[in-house]
Write a structure and sequence with these properties.
About 30% of the residues lie in helices and about 30% in strands. By secondary structure, it is of the alpha/beta class.
Length: about 675
């Protein structure tokens, strides 16, 4: 039996293609439901619950819960620890997949042997290979990985044979993707795709939690989020309130904590106003793709809504106002992705009937490059082999020349994924070593093939005179700072001087849990990076700017300064930009200059901040912008000076986010440019 699995951030689903009726059918779980919560709960007695049972425990504040772990798929970070054991997102996904498969087998009365699993279109090689490994660990063959918007388009296009160019707007629980496809006689041709894998319905839920807690704090001066069970109950309930606001003008939210009780009324207008910045973030993704493909909105026939979060009325209105195009809801909004995966599973079956004429052409969301040396020999560059939005599978062959006199018996190849020419602005995917070629020092030509397979996974092969050579995968070195230097200098191993200005939003919205989480995360950040060659400065900002600590390499001084941070010590709002002040502190110092900005609000004078960021960039100062809560992700991208330098996170994940930044800085994986020392 072959099935399709929508491995979602919030909910997952399993479907199959029925050849008798030529229809896709959902496979219910043990509770008879078509969708299963993507939640895992670890109980004190050692039991591990998955799905519906885990969701119940989460809503009751019981046990240690793991949810929305898909957002960290493939990064190797610890998603949850319990009873001395650490679990990554890949581990948790494997547990969820095993549960889904077992439930489906019980429902069908058959053994499932092959699966097609869906992923966000913007998943990179790390995330795709991690998903494949998670599936294979369940004892099934993963016959294909398919992009979620493509799967939805397949489900839609299978029923609609008209010639159309459709933008699939897929807003799920934890990820957002758009894909432009041409549907012709049921065939699907993907033209291009773009996405944001840390933006989704969970962020709208978080806005409701913040709103209610802010009201409660103002009334009783206590924060319900300080209590983990209460917080978990709010998170689960917020999803229901969001759904209510999709059909009603108001919702009443009761809240009891620490002996206090109250009720708050949230209107749809208020909800849409306080989440407007989230929709604006999707606009950036849409317009970027249209621009990259040299298209205009008039080239789009209709916009197809997919994902449960698109039921919010503001989404369709927003898209109509922005594009002027027809916006339609998929008939199976929550199930379309799973059904498309089921159709794909049947297409890839050796005994498929009735679907074999259907053709699917997908694309890659990321460019594939190789570490190379610039023409003048002065620096390393990312030489793009396969451009993003190229049809997959796709292979490019390039010749590598070993000059006469060089008797090397191996070639190192570093593959990268990203659009920047600067290697350290990209993901360094892998290092492979090519061996077993003959070289007598008279000059040798090696053919190297770079391949994106149909799953969007990267493969490297090599040949000499048509014969395959040995290609051995090796770990990428922990220290890759040399990629940002000159090939003549590789690798020196010296300690690079670093000057880091940490700018913290101290406006009222940071009060309570956010500021405490920020202080804790910044302390760990400093402790991770502190050495004699690293200096830190601490700046608070709100309506005004305050230099809490000038540049220092004394860890005790900077840690004491972090303890001094208090909300509203520089005003209530976020009208002042700290970038010029930070630039003046670190701009003239030898070494690399780095500004880390943490904010949870919408800045009042964003145009000034963007102008200041350009000034920092001209001074080779790297700006990394971390956003919480209502932070404007579009604005964060404008002030960040490196690719992927804008990070949108949650309070729970703030420590992990700062840990990721610390690792990137310590390994040189932020494209840091050093000044003369």
């Amino acid at each position: 039996m072959k099935v399709g699995i929508d491995l979602g951030t919030t909910y997952s689903a399993v479907a199959r293609y029925d050849k008798t009726s030529n229809k896709t059918l959902m496979i219910p779980n043990a509770f008879g439901k078509e969708i299963t919560p993507s939640v895992i709960c670890f109980l004190d007695d050692g039991d591990i619950l998955v799905g519906e049972d885990a969701k119940d425990m989460q809503s009751n504040g019981t046990g240690v819960n793991a949810a929305a772990f898909k957002r960290n798929m493939g990064d190797g970070s610890i998603a949850v620890s319990f009873n001395g054991k650490d679990y990554t997102s890949e581990d948790l996904s494997a547990m969820l997949l095993k549960h889904l498969i077992q439930d489906a087998e019980k429902s069908l009365g058959e053994k499932i042997t092959e699966v097609v699993i869906t992923v966000p279109a913007y998943f990179n090689d790390f995330q795709r290979t991690a998903t494949i490994r998670a599936g294979e660990s369940c004892g099934v063959k993963v016959s294909k990985i398919i992009n979620e918007p493509t799967a939805a388009a397949i489900s839609y296009g299978y029923k609609h044979s008209s010639d159309k160019t459709v933008m699939v707007y897929d807003l799920g629980g934890g990820t957002f993707d758009i894909t432009i496809v041409r549907i012709s006689k049921g065939n699907i041709e993907v033209i291009g795709t773009e996405g944001n894998h840390i933006l989704g319905g969970k962020d709208w839920d978080a806005a409701i939690v913040k709103y209610v807690c802010d009201q409660f704090i103002s009334e009783y001066d206590v924060d319900p989020r300080d209590d983990l069970p209460t917080k978990n109950e709010l998170i689960v309930a917020a999803e229901g309130y969001k759904k209510t606001l999709s059909v009603a003008e108001n919702v009443t939210i009761p809240l009891s904590y620490d002996g206090y009780s109250s009720k708050y009324t949230l209107s749809r207008d208020e909800f849409e106003s306080m989440t407007e910045h989230l929709l604006s973030a999707t606009k950036d993704v849409c317009t970027n793709l249209i621009t990259d493909l040299n298209m205009s909105w008039s080239d789009i026939d209709e916009i197809l809504l997919v994902g449960g979060s698109t039921r919010m009325p503001s989404v369709a209105k927003f898209l109509r106002d922005m594009t002027g195009r027809e916006v339609i809801a998929h008939g199976d909004t929550d199930l379309a992705v799973a059904k498309g995966a089921a159709i794909t599973a049947e297409l890839y079956s050796s005994n498929a009937t009735g679907l074999r004429a259907m053709q699917i052409a997908d694309v890659t969301a990321h460019s594939l490059g190789v570490l190379s040396v610039s023409q003048d020999g002065r620096k390393y560059v990312n030489e793009i082999m396969i451009k993003r939005n190229t049809k997959v599978p796709h292979t490019v062959r390039r010749q590598f020349t070993i000059k006469p006199g060089n008797v090397t018996d191996k070639i190192e190849v570093y593959t990268l994924q990203g659009e920047s020419r600067v290697p350290l602005d990209c993901n360094v995917l892998a290092k492979v070593v090519i061996t077993n070629f003959y070289n007598r020092g008279q000059g040798v030509i090696i053919d190297i093939e770079y391949n994106y397979d149909e799953n969007g996974v990267v493969n490297i092969t090599a040949f000499q005179d048509g014969e395959p050579l040995g290609v051995e995968a090796q770990p990428v070195p922990d220290d890759i700072r040399w990629m940002g230097g000159s090939p003549q200098d590789r690798p020196s191993g010296e300690n690079i001087l670093k000057n880091i200005a940490i700018c913290v939003d101290l406006s009222r919205s940071m009060e309570g849990e956010p500021i405490e989480a920020a202080k804790h995360s910044i302390r760990d950040f400093v402790n991770t990076l502190q050495d004699e060659g690293t200096k830190f400065s601490l700046i608070g900002f709100g309506d005004k700017i305050k230099v809490v600590q000038e540049l220092t390499n004394d860890p005790n001084v900077i840690l004491n300064s972090i303890d001094e941070l208090k909300v509203k010590m520089v005003g209530r709002g976020t009208d002042a930009s700290p970038l010029d002040v930070a630039r003046s502190i670190i701009g003239s110092k030898p070494g690399v200059g780095i500004i880390v900005v943490l904010t949870d609000g919408i800045w009042g004078k964003r145009d000034i901040a963007v102008e200041q960021a350009l000034g920092c960039k001209s001074d080779n100062i790297t700006i990394i912008a971390v956003g919480l809560g209502e932070a404007d992700t579009s604005f964060l991208r404008q002030i960040a000076t490196v690719d992927d330098g804008a990070l949108f996170t949650t309070i729970d994940r703030l420590g992990d986010t700062f840990g990721t930044i610390a690792t990137a800085i310590s390994t040189g994986n932020m494209g840091l440019a050093a000044r003369d020392q």
